[in-house]
Amino acid sequence: MRVFSGIRPTGELHIGNYLGAIKQWIELQEKTECVFCIVDLHAVTTPYEPENLQANIKDVAIAYLAAGLNPEKCIFFVQSEVKEHTELTWLLGTITPLGDLQRMTQFKEKSKKHKEYVNAGLLNYPILMAADILLYKTDLVPVGKDQEQHVELARTIARKFNKTFGEVFKEPKVVLPKIGAKIMSLQKPAKKMSKTDDPRGCIGLFDEPEEIEKKILAAVTDTGRAIRYNPKLKPGISNLLTIYSLFSGKGIKELERKFKGKGYADFKKSLAELLINSLEPFRRKRKELLQREVYVKEILAKGQKRAQIIAQSTLQDVKKKMGLT
Hints:
Radius of gyration: 21 Å
Number of domains: 2
CATH superfamily of the largest domain: HUPs
Distance between the termini: 29 Å
Largest sheet: 3 strands, parallel
Shape: globular
Oligomer: single chain
Mean pLDDT: 93
Family: Belongs to the class-I aminoacyl-tRNA synthetase family.
Enzyme class: ligase
Strand order of the largest sheet: 1-2-3
Number of helices: 13
InterPro entries: aa-tRNA-synth_I_CS (IPR001412), aa-tRNA-synth_Ic (IPR002305), Rossmann-like_a/b/a_fold (IPR014729), Trp-tRNA-ligase (IPR002306), Trp-tRNA-ligase_bac-type (IPR024109), Trp-tRNA_synthetase (IPR050203)
CATH architecture of the largest domain: 3-Layer(aba) Sandwich
Binding site for ATP: 8-10, 16-17, 144-146, 183
EC number: 6.1.1.2
Low-confidence stretches: none
């Protein structure tokens, strides 16, 4: 069994990224073959600062390693360093219906958000993502809920290629966390947690203790005092309960019993303390890695070489089936 997943080098990682994807990666690397990559080619499909891109890649690499990725137990590299990703994207693009791309939810959302930046790369984003996944003959793709549609398209493309040209690809399956696939903003519980949308509603993976406490205490809750999980009627406290459950390892029902008869203030104080203690090892490891940039570069270079061996083999099969070699 092989696992593949990637994350864009845009913005600082927050607990939504961690709970929705990275936490799964850390668990999966212990029991299966994992390929993880920093998808810098995806990052250039929306507005970005070219002069900051390399620093962002480095920061994200350090963040992943600080959060628990083990380069001895997984392949970890930068997407653009393995040229087979872009070559396979072009080849898969020749069998991907235009209508499928135009129906993608993320394309519609990002087109509205960045009206001045609607480009062919943004439209073809899901083909590149399919190439990322299929290049490694992936079995499982741990992603957040918002990427599920893209993985389904990758399955469709794999099926169509195999039927048209002959068997090469596996049809990958999505792995979603049972709870926490989508962590919501602390300020706007109806929206996904995002630093760009609202920094106050986002807990960074490396936020200092005082920042964490301030954001949790100011988190939007709901009418009434009951600490009860009900996403429709009580989205604010339900989101906080989800975060508490995932970091503590305690079930929602257990937490409801624990805080029965107590108000939001007591619950928030306890959650802030839990997050401060849980994130402390990440902060400590990140500070250490920031002093070891050469070591981080070596990890990515070794990962690139290991990834390329698999990628070259797959692409050779693809080209042969398509009559290109």
